[in-house]
Amino acid sequence: MKIAILSNGPGNYSTKRLKEVAKSRGHEVRVVKYKECYASIEKSNPVVSYRGENLGIYDAIIPRIASSMTRYGTAIVRQLETQGVYTVSGSLAIARSRDKLRSMQLLARAGVAIPKTVFSRNSADIDDLIEKLGGAPVIIKLARGTHGNGVVLAETKKAAKSVLQAFYLTNEDGTNILVQEYIEESAGTDIRAFVVGGRVIASMKRQSLDDDFRSNLHKGGGGSPVKLTIEERKMCVKAAKAMSLNIAGVDFMRSSRGPLILEVNASPGFGIEQVTGRDIAGKVIDYVEQNAKGKQKKDRIGA
Fold it and tell me: Which CATH architecture has domain 2-87?
């Protein structure tokens, strides 16, 4: 089978592991830096070129699209989709997962439990927004932030007003700003579940190593294996399905009212392998082998 891994970091641990496992099983594998691709669009002849040559036809692609390259990366994935190439993550699903507001709307519609969330572009509504969440402290997020960037804890109403007003003034590209309730019992701790093909295959608890309320490993948080309850597993699978993602990192926190989904990541890192000892790359390649020859499923949710 010919497999292309779309990644701008060929030295990245996740990319190296996918290539290593796929090659060990006899597949022809190529890491493609998608930012160096370009698309030719004409009637009945969709072409993707890479470094001056036609990329050619692959049996499957595994997109590893960086958040900062979402628009361009998903455009390349979309061009490959028009060629009939199987992709483990569809272009629409990747784009939706990067928009925190759209993600929250889709998760809520699917009946997935999430923290109380409000959004507005009107600074005159700030008092009402905070009251709807039960008062300060609150979490303020840029809808397109990643790795814990663009996320602020406002401990008082006054601080929340200052942060929101600053975001409104400096947010020139019109990115939506979300305000969420602060879950005190989970401060600095969350759980990452790795979902492949409708099954949770690994899970780890992420804990801030200092007084930071964010637990992302990219922010220096520590990870440890954790066993999920049946309810948590079902919720994570439901969240991935709501986003139309076959491969997903589902982040949630344990609250006094049950698990609350924080985010569904379309390109989750494989650091969870080192924490849990699970063969994540192997499970992903298993999924590709089992599904690449089947029909592409139509995305019915819409952009």
Answer: 3-Layer(aba) Sandwich (3.40)
